[in-house]
Design a protein that fits this description.
Length: 158
Amino acid sequence: LMRRKLVELSGKADAVIACRVSPKQKQEIVKLVRDEKPDITTLAIGDGANDVNMIIGAHVGIGLKGVEGQQASRASDYCFGEFKHLRRLLLFYGRESYRKNSALIHYNFFKNMVLVLPQFWFGIFNFYSAANPYDSFIIQFFNLLYSSLPIVIFAIYD
């Protein structure tokens, strides 16, 4: 009953900040949100060894290098020296990563349609025979040319 109320209350907030709790309780809060609301992405920020379990339990963990040591930064997905760098990570790199991934996914759909649709129409016009209109060398060359090279070029110029 208390778990459900905590999840409802945290669902109404933009952020949940846990102060003066044990490392196990921090991890349990992250785990509770991950289990009860699987469509929500969790982000944990910590600066010491007491935050390692929370950072590991979250979808995205951010560790801060500081006075308390390097344990949090070693266990995290991203590491910073100061909090002021967090804004750029969330607002710029998060959006850029989403944009780049969506462009590559669209490209892969296009590439697969170019490869499969001619084979589909070839099958229909040849009475669904098992014949392949392409030689195996051509398919390998197509995959090399249109699968790896554009992604490499996209990565180089980005």
